[in-house]
Amino acid sequence: MKKIPLAAAVLALSAVGLAGCGADAPASGTASSAAAEQAHSLTITGAWAKAADAGGMTGVFGTLKNSGADDLTVVAANSPAAASVELHETAAGADGAMTMQEIDGGFIIPAGGEYLLGPGASHLMLMGLEDGLLAGDTLPITLELADGSTTGIEVIAKDFAGANENYGGGADADADHEHSHGTDDTHGTEDTHGTVDH
């Protein structure tokens, strides 16, 4: 039986070890894919935005749905159509009146559940619209999740006459942030749906 020198044996074992390390490489790729899967679990239905003038602001509504096994948190959003996008909620102010304010912690969509965005409730707020938004226009928005993954949606603009809503932060802030997407219940009857690009 032919004997293998010790040095050759060590080299052979090292090569096996390196091959083993190489075999583990896809695991990190799988982890990245798993992170991307969080964004794939998020969809939106009934998505729409209130028509608004250039330079103004508008609210975006719809139902966020999570098809995954873990809770999802939308922490930020942006759109090329607006200077900034904020995630807003309805909360009681110091005087007890309900006001709109930026939400702390984002929108949490439970596993297998839904999160409603609606007039007078939580919503996306687009501020500093680049162009006027007319009924029938589509509005692109990117949602960012807590894990850093993102997904793009498109919403349809429609005419909507709602009541003005107030924002916390005093009279000046209210004047600067007043908008009219209101609490009219008719928003749920529109047959407009967002599309999600993965």
UniProtKB/TrEMBL annotation:
PROSITE patterns: PROKAR_LIPOPROTEIN
Protein name per UniProt: Copper chaperone PCu(A)C
Signal peptide: 1-19
Record keywords, A-Z: Signal
One Pfam match: PCuAC
Gene3D superfamilies given in the database record: PCu(A)C copper chaperone (2.60.40.1890)
Organism from which the protein derives: Arthrobacter pullicola
Top-level taxon in the UniProt lineage: Bacteria
Biased composition (Basic and acidic residues): 174-198
Region feature (Disordered): 167-198
